[in-house]
Write a structure and sequence with these properties.
CATH topology of the largest domain: UDP-n-acetylglucosamine1-carboxyvinyl-transferase, Chain
Bound molecules: uridine-diphosphate-N-acetylglucosamine
CATH superfamily of the largest domain: Enolpyruvate transferase domain
Strand content: 25-35%
Radius of gyration: 21 Å
Helix content: 25-40%
Strand order of the largest sheet: 22-23-1-24
CATH architecture of the largest domain: Alpha-beta prism
Shape: elongated
Distance between the termini: 5 Å
CATH class of the largest domain: Alpha Beta
Length: 417
């Protein structure tokens, strides 16, 4: 398993280009099934998750080719409707093939994803939503067996605005007979991106930027040629990198409009942030100011930036608090940050982060994508050598992260094996 050796501290300076968003690309890849034709996605990041979703789709009979940030998907010959455990367990978003397979082919067999590093992460809302649309669902030996002769519209009220459930219900409703309304829908930009691609293909969707999405089913939708939005979490991670290293980074090819909560919070910490078209410049303050952070559903502060923000606040001028509302257990990075000298106390879903003068390099282990990036950020600011073990998580979600960091002046090396 690969690891990173980081020698710090470094002050990151220069500019970086942001890649396409993983969480926008994955539902779009699955949506190709709905079209039954040849789709093209632009601005696709070269990630482990791109490979995993490609492998999953190939297993269904989709022809997938990746070429220089373009992904060609030919879904005209689906031969199987099964998503196997060995792939689903490595990437929960595999569940996104469930709705398109039922809606287009009337049957799907998808492994249950199981838990993840920070908790159980249920999919009950996906299944309830699909059942409301008329799908028959059974759990058989760890697999979801779903079938439907024809899906019909329904009014579905989500108890929480789940991104995944909104994606699956939206994709099923597009080909269902009649009108579907999703109340308390997720409003993440990745959902809007998916809805825009489907609309370009002939789907009838309204209100995708609001928490009430209305879908009028159509008989079929055309293949799409669509551009994936920039990754707001990758952009936020580089913004945090500028702040934690005392540097200044120009973050290009991103969408600042998707990043208000992140920009506001880093500004509260004293960062000087200037926006320009498709980008922003983030300059660190002389001393990071403490802050209060609460994660939530979009447009609130994203849980996917919580770990990176925690690394930043570890070096602040006083005590900060972080309340994790989306995944109350998502604190696997805390003990590892402690190994670098952080002073953090956890009480349920609340973390109190007492600022320390500096991090000291040490070996640490990454447990998920964002925890990995938080540890890399801390390693960049730490004095001496930090070894981040198990970085395969980072390769799932960040495109060429070490190359981008080296170009900004970081001393980071990948050790294979
Ligand atoms: C997506 C993102 C992930 C991000 C998360 C929250 C992708 C591929 N992943 O994950 O990076 O951290 O949104 O922004 O886009 N819930 C239920 N029942 C369900 C589904 C969810 O109770 O059926 C709960 C979850 O436990 C959690 C909350 O809803 O508390 C939000 O989860 P959800 O938005 O579904 O996350 P994912 O779509 O899995």
């Amino acid at each position: 398993m690969d690891s990173f050796i980081i020698r710090g501290p470094s002050k990151l300076e220069g500019s970086v280009n942001i890649s396409g968003a993983k969480n926008a690309m994955l539902p779009l890849m699955a949506a190709a099934i709905l079209t039954g034709g040849k789709c093209v996605l632009e601005n696709v990041p070269d990630l482990k998750d791109t490979e995993t979703m490609s492998e999953l789709l190939r297993g269904l009979g989709v022809d997938v080719e990746f070429n220089n940030s373009r992904l060609f998907l030919d879904a005209s010959k689906i031969e199987s409707e099964e998503a196997p455990y060995n792939l689903v367990r490595t990437m929960r978003a595999s569940i996104y093939v469930l709705a398109p397979l039922i809606a287009k082919y009337g049957h799907a067999r998808v492994s249950l994803p199981g838990g993840c590093a920070w908790g159980p992460r249920p999919i009950d809302l996906h299944l309830k939503g699909l059942m409301a649309l008329g799908a028959k669902i059974e759990i058989d030996h760890g697999y979801i067996e779903a079938s439907a002769k024809e899906l019909h519209g329904a009014e579905i009220i989500l108890s929480v605005p789940s991104v995944g459930a909104t994606v699956n219900i939206l994709m099923a409703a597009v080909l269902a007979r009649g009108i579907t309304i999703i109340e308390n829908a997720a409003r993440e930009p990745e959902i809007v991106n998916l809805a825009e691609a489907l609309k370009q293909s002939g789907a009838k969707i309204d209100g995708e930027e609001s928490s009430r999405i209305q879908i009028e089913g159509v008989r079929e939708i055309e293949p799409f040629n669509f551009r994936v939005i920039p990754d707001r979490i990758e952009a936020g991670t580089f913004a945090a990198a500028a702040v934690i290293t005392g540097g200044k980074i120009e973050i290009r090819e991103c969408e600042p409009d998707h990043m208000h909560s992140i920009i506001n919070k880093l500004s509260e910490c004293g960062a000087n942030i200037k926006l320009f078209k498709n980008g922003l410049t983030v300059e660190a303050p002389a001393k990071i100011r403490h802050a209060e952070v609460e994660t939530g559903y979009y447009p609130a502060f994203p849980t996917d930036m919580q770990a990176q923000m925690m690394s930043v606040l570890c070096l602040a001028d006083g005590a900060s608090s972080i309340i994790e509302h989306v995944y109350p257990d998502r604190f696997t990075h805390v003990a590892e940050l402690g190994r670098l000298g952080a002073d953090i106390n956890i009480d349920g879903s609340v973390a109190i982060v007492n600022g320390v003068e500096r991090f000291e390099g040490a070996p640490v282990m990454a447990t998920d994508i964002r925890a990995s990036s938080a540890l890399i950020l801390a390693g960049l600011a730490a004095h001496g050598e930090t070894k981040v073990l198990r970085i395969y998580h980072i390769d799932r979600g960040y495109e060429r992260i070490e190359e981008k960091l080296v170009a900004l002046g970081a001393d980071i090396t990948r050790i294979s094996g």
